[in-house]
Amino acid sequence: MCRAMLILMHAQATRSEIDNVLAHVRQHGYEPIELPGADRIAVGVLGSNPASVRDHVVGLPGVVDAIPVSKPYKQVGREWQPERTVVDVAGVRFGGAEFAVIAGPCAVEDGPQLLATARAVRAAGAVMLRGGAYKPRTSPYAFRGLGAAGLALLAEAREQTGLPVVTEVLTPADVELVAASADMLQVGTRNAQNFSLLEAVGQAGKPVMLKRGLSNTVEEWLLSAEYIVGQGNRDVVLCERGVRTFETATRNTLDLSAVPLVRSLSHLPIIVDPSHATGHRNLVAPMALAALAGGADGLMVEVHPNPDEALSDGPQSLTFAQFGELMEELRRVGDAVRRPLAVS
Length: 344
Ligand code: PEP
Ligand code: MN
Hints:
Elements lengths: L3 E6 L5 H13 L4 E5 L4 E6 L7 H4 L5 E6 L18 E3 L2 E3 L5 E5 L6 H14 L3 E3 L17 H14 L3 E4 L6 H7 L2 E4 L7 H8 L5 E4 L6 H12 L6 E5 L17 H8 L4 E3 L1 H5 L2 H13 L4 E5 L17 H17 L8
Parallel strand pairs: 7-8, 7-14, 8-9, 9-10, 10-11, 11-12, 12-13
Antiparallel strand pairs: 1-3, 1-4, 2-3, 5-6
The structure holds phosphoenolpyruvate and manganese (II) ion (MN).
């Protein structure tokens, strides 16, 4: 049974023709979603059996056809929306012409650590700050973040540097609190199929960065994004951060092919996290450059003032100097592939 249908209309369809279609869809018990586009106007219909509406709309003035959406994910797919989505996070754009670099420590540890890192990454050219206040740790005895105090430090760092902030939220109960401080909510790999959290961030009114689940297929990942978009939040940035494989020499296996694949299947922006994908700081720059050349919309990179003393993920964190060098190399590769780096 078809669960999503697209009513395709002429690009020149008039307002009253579109309204007429919307009214017919509503008459049959479905809530239509208007999808304006450059080359076509479409009306999306989601529900248990939207195909039942088909015969009532095909033939109406302005309607070209009504077709089922073939993929299991609907609103995040290219069938639903051929044009790429640009997600604007407090002025930083993901999915447009520019390549946006997010950087910062794995975890917010204290004020000086965060502020020094924020200043250094900003000076090197990052346009957004990352830092975990709520850390999902494999061991309950590991440093699990400063919680609300960490959020306050992130807000302070944003104030001082002007960099918008992305930080992880672990549970639906914290979404409101985290959304009050953050410019973008991060859903981590371990929560990528926590469907109640996905729905909660879908209602939070802030852009969401959705990491790929540890062992998720691209289709599962896009279905997770569908949970968020299904709540009315279209501002989703996907983040490839490596997947679990048999390989133990790296922390995860970076699936770089997911970048062009996701771009072909979905209109959502996609960025790469080479830090968690590799687990080793000497592998971060090569994979970051490959991500840029491979068509990613941006990066998220872990940076620490003194990686050897980091409370989490030191081995994969870059020093300030290494991050500066990486940004230089990214500019050069960006020039070569005609992908300018976003500047703030
Ligand atoms: C992180 O970015 O802080 C993080 C925990 O990453 P992941 O969910 O990809 O492991
Ligand atoms: Mn980390």
